[in-house]
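Q: What does the assembled structure look like for these inputs?
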Amino acid sequence: MSAVLEPTRPVSSVGTSTTTSARPIARRRRRWSTGGWNALAVLIAIVLGFPIFWMLITAFKTSSDINQLVPQFWPHHPTWRAFAEVLDDPLFRDDIRNSFVITVATVAISLVIGFLGALAIARFRFVGRHVFIVVVLIVQMIPLTALTIPMSLLLDNAQLKNTLPGVVIAYLMFSMPFTVWTLRTFIANIPQELDEAALMDGCSRFQVFYKIILPLVGPGLVATGVYGWVLAWNEFVLANTLLLDNNKQTIMVYLLVFQSSPTHGADYGGLMAAATLTSLPVVILFVIFQSRIAAGLTSGAVKG
Amino acid sequence: MKRTVLGATAVAAIAATVVSGCSSSGSNGGGSGAALSTDGKGKTITVWLQSDAKTGWPAVVTQATQRFEKATGAHVKIEWQQWANYTTKLDSTFAGNSGIPDVVELGNTQTASYISAGAFTDLTKDKSDFANSGTWLQGLAESGTSPDGKLEAVPYYAGSRVVIYRKDLWDKAGVTTVPTTLSELNADLAKVKAANSGDPNFSAFYMPGKYWYAAMSLVYGAGGKIASQQGGKWVGDLESPQAQQGLAEWKTLATTYSTGGATLDESTQDSVMAQGHVAAILGNGWEVGSVIAPKTGNPKLTKDISTFPLPGTSAGHYTPSFLGGSDLAVPEKAKNAGLGAEWIKYYTDTTSQKLLAKYAIPNTTNLLSVYEKQSQANQSTGEAAKDTWFVPNTANWANVESNNILQDMLESIATGKASIADAAKTADAKIASTLNSTG
Amino acid sequence: MTATGTAVPPRVERRHRVSSLRRGGGIPYLLALPAVLVILLVAGWPLVKIITLSLEKQQSGKYALFHNGGSTAFTGLSNYADALTSSDFWSSLVRSVVFTAVNVVLSVVVGVLIALLLNRVSKWARLLLVAVLLFCWAVPSTVSTQVFAWLFNNQYGVVNYVLGKLPGLSMQGHDWFANPHSGLAVVTLVVVWGAIPLLAISLHAGITQIPKEVLEAARCDGAGPWSAFRHVTLPFLRPLLVILTALSVIWDFGVFSQIWFMRNGHPEPGYQTLGIYMYTQGVSSSHYNTGSTLAVLMMLCLVVVMAFYIRQLFKIGDAE
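A:
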């Protein structure tokens, strides 16, 4: 987190025109108010993080302790049972694997295609440019629940029903527009002078894309990729309808099972344990890529 | 089309071999119906069962599958399903041509709309091949039959609702005998409530505000009904004086004796009861297990839970129970319709149903005694299953459920937002327009 | 930004760069081709199917769906007439608009505030807050809805328990969901809770890009924090804010699972936003013609609302 979320330019003390006596006072005031802001940040973290805390402790509670009339803010009889059962379940492992395959494929393909499309919009003027922009935006407006039957029929005709690639194709529909949009902004922020310099040095147009633009937009690719990951990983409406076999379903469908037949026994501890394990990959991914992500979010999208 | 090619080769294969007993495979399904088939060498059938069986009675599934595989040489692939979004999944699957299972489980209130849409294979010719078809439970059998009398779905299992109560809390309040009429029940509940008046979260009878199965049971018990056909058109009947009487009794339970459940439905009532502040609920037999299971409930209550059928308006009668349950059907587009029907035969025969009787009400009246012998809860639910009611068996009924018409009506009564008469009037109008709508 | 540290009006720079967008002959078409193909195939066909379905009416329920067309009749705009003359449709539309507006405003405002806060705190506080935001983002919406439903439960909810400890406030058995307005407020909490992380982190990254000299200069000129925000920070963040707000409007208008699971699959009439209304009228009751009609109407609403943003996005796009 460090390198990137700090202000990108050093504070220059030269430009300020305060008197020498005022500066220590200003610094003291700033340090005090920073402490105040820190306290506020901690407070906000507690408030926002409380539901997550609740999710975590519920995963460790026995069922008689969950949802007691007097809430238990810490498990009275902590147990690993829920985690052990979920991790032991071969279906859970299969489903995580399926989710992983689908999500990685979706993100990879939409990054490649989105990058190319974003290049077109960001670097060129061409007939149909505005139409392309509007279409990319409109596609995001289609309500997902209305899409289930038509999408299902489309994939069925293409013999892709009940297959992982079929789901990837369906997910491309809503991950790609976002990718094109965001990458366009990042690419637009790379000065065209660099392009021109490279062209004058004898690079072909494609070499410019590959050697100049692509490395500079790297952090942007990572940022878009992680966002696309969250979208694809947490999607369940389409996954539930398109994947028919138990060993092909995704982790979101697995979570639905816990919430499905409560009168046959609602295993809330199991649900929260599975949910925690489901949320972890995204967090781990974020931690690995966090410096590049924030750099990506930083370098893009601010300059007009 | 691929299917006819398969069908042709199958027929040719049958002709070339001698098969005793069952007739040709006829795997082209559809209008001509499918005869049961035992020619399964090298084939795999797909069966969609709800995960209730996986958690409740997996051994029953295994033994039926083993016997089937031995007899036909086919393999069985069970895909476990969940109820959430199930109809959308069925719709999208039946609309296409790939991934269609050979056997599908449906709730008995869901079958009517699929039968009218022609989604299932006609099994009328094979009815006598299914065990106990002469004594199937009426509520289940009705749900599997088309309006013109064709058999489209085979009864699987049933459930009926009884009062599940805390014997220790009732004893402490001085109620030691089970009530035999509704007025006795109300008097008993008043005593239990008075004995626990210090607990603001206590419910003598926890009745969630959206629990339409319970409310309609009381309506039918008072002599009313949900809807009826008059001159070919459906009319809602909840405004009749009998229905209003039933709803009034429900309102008493939901407002006077129940705390905190006005905007909820019955899906969380077991975990609420497990917390210990509820003295009675109306639930299916398996909900007893849900309340006391270590993983999902409170095992400390095991000794204190008992059951009895919901008494009726006069002694000697019970309030009719809703006969819930599931049916099994063979989709019309199934690739192995004959084998699918054969698997259903094994899964619903007397051997399987006798094993199932430990956990759920079997599909035939002549096994009810086996069921009732298994536990106290089974005895009550078996008794309750003898007098049941069912929803109007029409294709559009599923829309009444998915539009939440009854739940909305009951919630407005339980929260006091509408009087019983007004709420019933609104609901009747909506029920009529939903049941009568075309397309 | 020029080297003098004063803020050059951005428009001057923009005009300079317009002319450098080149006509690349066939290259842009080649680049855009994969994206166009994917959109046409994957989104185009279903969209056409949805529109077609909305112009047809099936007899006898699902029969046509299961038997490849069956007896589907082309009925023109009659489905639209039916939808638009139903009072339930209009009340859900109004509800959706209000719900979306509240959610978007709350998400963006809180996102901006947290982004500003992230800029002012020490490193450890920043790390902590970002870590929490990350986890909030990662939790699937069905799970977070379940947790919030527990927290706001009328009998054992933590919220009632904590609020009940305040002197003079009795929250015993207070049912947050009896009144649809307070129930939708709880749903708003879930939606905003899940939306803040992306907004806060992106906006914070945007803020860190503002050159320090500009802010210092503004402060030297006597600008208070609010004025600095309005005249320095906000113009810098404008493109990012426009994009994020536009996307928030689209996403919040289509909110479905939070409302659905909060009401356990049976949303009362007071909770029916357009997305829920479309689902109960169309999908869950298998009336796919009605459902498609409502879907098209939803999209038209969004296009109308987004007309303003689309123009803004063109302006930003053209300025490159």
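Confidence is low (pLDDT under 50) at residues 1-32 of chain B.
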